């Protein structure tokens, strides 16, 4: 859970210390849904921004705190199943669900059907392809091999971890209007000269190193059929390259 909360802080930092970018009027916003709420930290912080709104966070896992602001509640739910809501929402927020959703167009339709007229939805998600604009990341790097194998494994099980560039098309196809697509670079490591991107790069490296073994073992062993020992040998080399700053690369949101 600590990693999820750190990741929240990281995402907010990328956006210039903002929880969201949509032009949501506080005074006329009464119902908000946070899809895949995780530890509930976004919903809890949003409660301060929207004190008069009912904020619902849903997730498959019950890892949310028991003490929350009075206008926040959580429920265990699978957003890919049929939605049953008595009232529609003014704002639906969906962040960091790449690799978790199988049928994105279906989810878009469910969101569209559960928004009030004039309501907003905001997606914040990734393209985890490693991009090296100066060519310092090459096929000789273990990190390059690891990242490509990770993406391949996720796609084999129908959970694309690079849906960021696809979201705009799905949103428009669903019927949403006033669509805005903003792209943010996320350096891997503190190599950038700009202080803002240097800090983002360090935070990205921290959260990547923290989760590296868990999601690599799950995908490489479960999908590619590697042994645990084979995965750990590769990860040892990946960690060396990441710590040494052997290349300049970024992912995107």
UniProtKB/TrEMBL annotation:
Keywords: Methyltransferase, Transferase. GO terms for biological process: methylation. The keyword Transferase applies. InterPro entries: SAM-dependent_MTases_sf (IPR029063). It comes from the Eukaryota. CDD domains: AdoMet_MTases. Belongs to the methyltransferase superfamily. LaeA methyltransferase family. This is UMTA methyltransferase. The lineage of its organism: Eukaryota, Fungi, Dikarya, Ascomycota, Pezizomycotina.
């Amino acid at each position: 859970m600590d990693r999820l909360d750190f990741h929240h802080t990281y995402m907010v930092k990328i956006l210039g210390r903002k929880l969201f970018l949509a032009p949501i009027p506080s005074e006329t916003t009464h119902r908000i849904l946070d899809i895949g709420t995780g530890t509930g930290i976004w919903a809890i912080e949003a409660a301060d921004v929207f004190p008069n709104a009912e904020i619902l966070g849903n997730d498959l896992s019950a890892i949310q705190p028991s003490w929350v602001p009075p206008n926040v509640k959580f429920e265990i739910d699978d957003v890919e199943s049929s939605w049953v809501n008595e009232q529609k929402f003014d704002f639906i927020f969906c962040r960091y669900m790449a690799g978790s959703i199988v049928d994105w167009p279906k989810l878009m339709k469910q969101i569209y059907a559960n928004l009030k007229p004039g309501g907003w939805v905001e997606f914040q998600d990734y393209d985890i392809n490693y991009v090296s604009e100066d060519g310092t990341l090459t096929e000789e790097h273990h990190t390059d091999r690891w990242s490509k194998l990770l993406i391949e494994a996720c796609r084999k099980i129908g959970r694309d971890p690079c849906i960021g560039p696809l979201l705009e098309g799905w949103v428009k196809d669903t019927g949403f209007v006033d669509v805005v697509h903003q792209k943010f670079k996320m350096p891997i490591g503190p190599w950038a000269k700009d202080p803002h991107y240097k800090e983002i790069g360090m935070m990205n490296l921290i959260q990547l190193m923290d989760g590296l073994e868990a999601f690599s073992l799950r995908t490489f062993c479960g999908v590619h059929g590697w042994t645990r020992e084979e995965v750990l040998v590769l990860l040892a080399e990946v960690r060396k390259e990441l710590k040494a700053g052997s290349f300049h690369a970024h992912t995107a949101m």
